[in-house]
């Protein structure tokens, strides 16, 4: 997973260095609070300060998706967050992000990367940290903001963002930390003149013809640690086989449904220890799915339930899936990327996924 994210950053940096559009530098500060995720946070609330520095470029193209998303920006962002050592220590983040305007002066942003904590859980020096169990973790962020245009492509932004950091249960403890942030951000003037464009809605004439209906199969796998205090081994295997249908309601959006069969083999150890009389180790789920497309890049969000499941006390039958995928293939659409299975936004396991289209029309 960490190698995959590094490859994504490397591809973005190569693309930015070869693009004709000038890059821009931005920096800002933000202040916020840590979302309640345990009794320690209730007793000692924290309001961390963040400093952000990024490097980005606009996407300029005649492609329909570029015009529809109103020439979004892509780049890399570095974040430093000041937090007490007793919680998890200082946080340093690096993520690849995509940002675009809407409603004229507003903008949205999504990012995916890695975070490094200076003081993760340790039985001796930091036993109270039940949130972050590893030095290196995933970093997921999203937000919206308002932009004040200052001319020469410089701008001042007021941003509101949500950040999540955890390791996908690759190392315990892994409650994760969630942050709400409000900040002020300044993007420096560009060093080169920009290409002029208008923020108008494109016509379907520029859209690439895509099939309206798609039936596909996918398989994803990953590793996870057991929730038990004394498991019989460090890591267990999790995987998902899925059959799905997508309907392209727009060149940049699709909706559909999934039927998936998944298994987290750490449940075998749980059944053995607890004597759970419901011994079925698998999950069969039904999900409603939506996808958004930025060229070959797709963000998928699915929500549903598992009528057949390896349940035990404390389990939640409502489940979510979130994934970021890259589409490829000349004669048959295929995609690969990183996905995660969650229960009310708490990660069950991460998985690397591959999918192939069986039928489209």
Keywords:
eight-stranded antiparallel beta barrel, 16 strands
Structural class assignment: mainly beta
Biggest sheet overview: 8 strands, antiparallel, barrel
Mean pLDDT level: 80
Compute the CA-based radius of gyration: 22 Å
Compute the number of helices.
Answer: 4
The oligomeric status of these chains comes to single chain
* Pattern of helices and strands: HEHEHEEEEEEEEEHEEEEE
Overall 3D geometry?
flat
Number-wise, the strands total 16
Our measurement of the CA-to-CA distance between the termini, rounded to an integer number of angstroms, reads: 34 Å
Give unreliable regions as ranges. none
Helix content: under 10%
Q: Major sheet: order of its strands?
A: 1-2-3-4-5-6-7-8
| Beta-strand content bin | over 45%
Explain this structure.
By secondary structure, the protein is mainly β. 10% of the residues lie in helices and 54% in strands. The protein has 4 helices and 16 strands. The strands form 2 sheets. Strands 1-2-3-4-5-6-7-8 form an 8-stranded antiparallel barrel. An 8-stranded antiparallel β-barrel has the order 9-10-11-12-13-14-15-16. Strand 15 (334-343) and strand 16 (346-360) form a beta hairpin. The longest helix has 17 residues, at 2-18. The radius of gyration is 22 Å and the shape is flat. The model has no long low-confidence stretch (mean pLDDT 80).
Q: What topology does this entry show?
A:
Blueprint: H1 2-18, E1 24-34, H2 39-43, E2 49-58, H3 64-68, E3 73-82, E4 91-102, E5 106-117, E6 136-151, E7 154-166, E8 177-187, E9 213-224, E10 236-250, E11 253-264, H4 266-274, E12 282-294, E13 297-308, E14 318-328, E15 334-343, E16 346-360
């Amino acid at each position: 997973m960490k190698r995959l994210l590094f490859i994504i950053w490397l591809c973005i940096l190569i693309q930015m260095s070869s693009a004709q559009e000038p890059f821009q530098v931005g920096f800002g500060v933000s202040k916020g609070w840590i979302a309640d995720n345990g009794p320690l946070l209730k007793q000692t609330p924290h309001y961390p300060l963040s400093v952000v520095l990024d490097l980005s470029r606009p996407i300029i193209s005649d492609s329909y998706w570029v015009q529809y998303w109103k020439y979004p920006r892509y780049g890399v962002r570095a974040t430093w967050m000041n937090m007490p050592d007793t919680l998890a220590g200082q946080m340093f983040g690096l993520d690849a992000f995509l940002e675009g305007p809407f409603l004229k002066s507003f903008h949205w942003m999504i990012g995916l990367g890695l975070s490094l904590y200076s003081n993760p859980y340790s039985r001796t020096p930091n036993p109270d940290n039940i949130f972050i169990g590893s030095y290196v973790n995933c970093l997921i962020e999203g937000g919206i903001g308002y932009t004040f245009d200052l001319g020469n492509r410089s701008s001042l932004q007021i941003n509101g963002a949500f950040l999540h950091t955890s390791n996908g249960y690759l190392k315990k403890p892994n409650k994760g930390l969630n942050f709400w942030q409000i900040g002020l951000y300044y993007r420096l003037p560009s060093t080169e003149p920009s290409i002029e464009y208008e923020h108008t809605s494109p016509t379907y004439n520029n859209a690439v013809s895509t099939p309206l209906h798609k039936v596909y199969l996918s398989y994803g796998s990953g590793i996870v640690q057991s929730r038990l205090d004394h498991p019989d081994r460090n890591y267990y295997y999790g995987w998902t086989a899925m059959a799905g249908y997508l309907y392209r309601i727009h060149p940049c959006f699709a909706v559909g449904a999934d039927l998936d069969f998944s298994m987290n083999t750490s449940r075998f150890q749980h059944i053995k220890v607890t004597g759970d009389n419901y011994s079925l180790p698998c999950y069969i789920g039904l999900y409603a799915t939506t996808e958004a497309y930025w060229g070959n890049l797709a963000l998928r969000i699915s929500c549903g339930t598992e009528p057949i499941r390896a349940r035990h006390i404390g389990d939640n039958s409502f489940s979510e899936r979130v994934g970021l995928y890259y589409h490829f293939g000349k004669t048959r659409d295929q995609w690969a990327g990183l996905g995660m299975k969650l229960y009310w936004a708490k990660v069950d396991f991460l998985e690397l996924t591959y999918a192939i289209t069986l039928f489209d029309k």
